Amino acid sequence: MTTAVTSKEVKQPKLQKAKNSIENEKIIKVDRKDAKLALAHMYVAFGALLLGGLAGLLQVFVRSGAFQLPFGIGYYQVLTVHGVLLGLILTTYFIMGFQFAAVSRTAGPLSNTQRKLGWIGFWVMTIGTVAAAAMVLLNEASVLYTFYAPLQAHWIFYAGLALVVVGSWIEGLSQILRYAQWRKENKGQTSPLLTFMAVVNNLMWFVATLGVAIEVLFQLLPWSLGLVERIDVLLSRTLFWYFGHALVYFWLLPAYMVWYVVIPKVIGGKLFSDSLARLSFMLFLLFSIPVGVHHQLTEPGIDGFWKFLQVVLTFFVIVPSLMTAFSMFATFELRGRELGGKGAMGWFKRLPWKDCRFLVPFIGMIAFIPGGAGGIVNASYQMNQLIHNTIWVTGHFHLTVATAVVLTYFGAAFWLIPHLTGRKLTSKMNSMANTSGILWAVGMFIMSGAMHIAGLLGAPRRSEYSTYGGSEQAAEWISYQIAQAIGGTILFISILVIIGVVINLLWFAPKGEEEFPVAEAAPGGGKTPAILENFKVWGVILAALIIIAYTIPIFEIITNSPVGSTGFKLW
Amino acid sequence: MHIHKYEKWWLVFGTGTLIAFLIIIGVSAFHSGTHPNNSKWTLDYEKVDETAPFDNPGVHKVEGKDWDYEVVLVASAFSYNPTEIEIPVGSKVRFIATTKDVIHGFEVAGTNINMMLEPGYVSEQITTVDQVGEFTIVCNEYCGVGHAMMYSTLKVVEADDNSSHK
């Protein structure tokens, strides 16, 4: 039933328009067993949010100079907790839970095998998380979430993170199998958009995580186990960043799924264009990976020509984001005018500002504008020298991942969790959710703004409180660090409000039915070209781009490599 | 595939802007030579102290080169050698630096002198110091518990001694 409705929605938008009112009345539910699987991910994700947020609060306090950590806890230990829990655990668990729900909702319930794979993946990820967390808590792994060699953590830390990746592969495979089943059962038809998007994100993740998997399996694990004495540091960093930049798109694409498919339905409008949404996801698949060297612009051992080539490819990945921005605001304007908004900006006022499912992700969208612009600065080759490893970079990704992406996740959780638990988002919870979004905006404006300015003045990232021997420049940074503590405190209050709403939606909200909003295509979009779903073609282009961007740099790193490094434990 | 007229304009404008940015930084890099550190010079990080020029860290006035001074700097957990660098304003300087242990950063705060120091590699950057003042050199890559205690100072001083710069 689910599949039939969805495929028609995409295939025959005009016909569907007439039936609109009838279809809208009926809520299509995620299968109950699949809902359990998705919910399991939400528990871990929001647990990570609370603990990771607390670690962040401690950091901004320490850096203000007015607070010292008790019980011999190290600043960099707390920083590792913050990065691992929020950058890796919150994101990966939310993404996988959301994608399971999205696939089940739009392609139909998972088969028993697919669901079993989902649970195996979940437990593999969770065992890995617990193992890595134990090593961090024992102070055996204060190497931050980028774990750059030759700082050497306990091997269990690397093995734990490897299990998180392997678990996510198993889960991704389960989702792709559901998609393949749908294609088989609906030959020649355009697949449900949300399922297609989840599949693209999983494929991108498979190709990207190969880099970090090779780094961990062939370099870090044998080296930390003492099987080999030395490690090629530059090679390990290059493999890490082959994965590391695609990682940010793995975070971003689920937010784009919500923006493209969910938000239009929430505001009562239509998906602007099915084809353009698919095209933008395919462009992300192509350009997310062969760009990692833009994180290594100030490093020795990589030729300027290859750095610049990856800068050019990095700029290409901005194009699908430009497409997304256009689609979003076109959808908003069309809907605002439909509701009677007049004049150049009258439509803007008509949008549902009091609906947290719209407002919270919308704040995220706005943050992505300065976040994206700052990203262009960071990637601009020699301009990178001004900001590399300064706290400007921290300010940048707190606008992108820590506002645009996570506010969209939270905005989605506010309807997804009650949808999965069979409860209702009450108007009281709705206004609490809106409050959390506004608090987040205010806190992040202060914290990220102060980080950007201090970074331009030279303040380094990932550094605890220091006066640098009474340096005048460092004294100037400290006033901004106090501002960061104020912003960070507001953000933590926002996290507490969010956790309160989530607890309510999990266990206490009134029973009822909450919609999983899925927009249909606007009329006149035409049939989606089949080429957009031909993964062989896009896969070949992707492989070619990766080979062009990475073969010679990696060859040169290996042939030009100095004697490798032994491990250091300097914390 | 149908693309709305305004969206076409928007994408042409956006992509055009990106291409303009790329041309600007590309010309600046490959024509004017403003590359970030791209050094291919390698050494044995365990023998830094015995390897020239790192057997003699400090500020060296040089003759017959494209620059006036060479600053040779060695980073290790958690300090820089030398801890203070003094150079007359207006001089062209080549910074040459490496690390004896883990990865460190070399950032002259508030300027675009910024490079990663990785074991086994020498990092280099050439610049003209054109502003008098005291600049803090900070380690901007996490290197361990003493990371934030790791600094040096670059003093750019008035060129009262005429022989010290051309």
From TrEMBL, chain A:
GO biological process: aerobic respiration
A molecular-function term among this protein's GO annotations: cytochrome-c oxidase activity
Pfam families per UniProt: COX1
Any one of the GO CC terms: membrane
The keyword Transport is annotated on this UniProt entry: yes
Domain Cytochrome oxidase subunit I profile, residue spans: 36-507
Stretch forming the signal peptide: none
Annotated transmembrane regions: 42-62, 74-96, 117-138, 153-172, 193-220, 240-263, 275-293, 305-332, 358-377, 397-417, 438-458, 478-507, 537-558
Keyword annotations from UniProtKB, A to Z: Electron transport, Membrane, Respiratory chain, Transmembrane, Transmembrane helix, Transport
The protein's name in its UniProt record: B(O/a)3-type cytochrome-c oxidase subunit 1
Organism, scientific name: Ureibacillus yapensis
Automatic annotation (TrEMBL), chain B:
InterPro entries on file: Ba3_CcO_II_C, CcO_II-like_C, Copper_CuA, Cupredoxin, NosZ/Cyto_c_oxidase_sub2
Protein name: Cytochrome aa3 subunit 2
KW Transmembrane (keyword) present: yes
Annotated signal sequence range: none
GO-annotated molecular function: copper ion binding; cytochrome-c oxidase activity
Catalytic activity annotation: 4 Fe(II)-[cytochrome c] + O2 + 8 H(+)(in) = 4 Fe(III)-[cytochrome c] + 2 H2O + 4 H(+)(out)
Record's function text: Subunits I and II form the functional core of the enzyme complex. Electrons originating in cytochrome c are transferred via heme a and Cu(A) to the binuclear center formed by heme a3 and Cu(B).
TM stretches of this protein: 9-30
Top-level lineage group: Bacteria
GO CC list: cell envelope; membrane
Keywords of this entry: Copper, Membrane, Metal-binding, Transmembrane, Transmembrane helix
Compartments where found: Cell envelope
Domain Cytochrome oxidase subunit II copper A binding: 55-166
